[in-house]
Design a protein that fits this description.
Helix content: 55-70%
Shape: globular
């Protein structure tokens, strides 16, 4: 599972952009852990990126 800093580094967008996508439900699905940390599964990030390729 990836942290948000790992995801934004990989996809190359600013943190603010990533959080805007999350608030608009346009980003990859995330998991909120009991300690409040947000994680994104590698498979979900890959699926989300693939969906962007198909619509381009």
């Amino acid at each position: 599972m990836l942290t948000i800093p790992e995801v934004i580094e990989e996809i190359g967008v600013p943190r603010a952009t990533f959080y805007r996508w999350r608030s608009c439900k346009k980003g990859p699905k995330a998991i909120k852990l009991p300690n409040g940390a947000i994680r994104i599964r590698r498979s979900e990030l890959d699926r989300w990126l693939s969906s962007l390729e198909e619509s381009a």
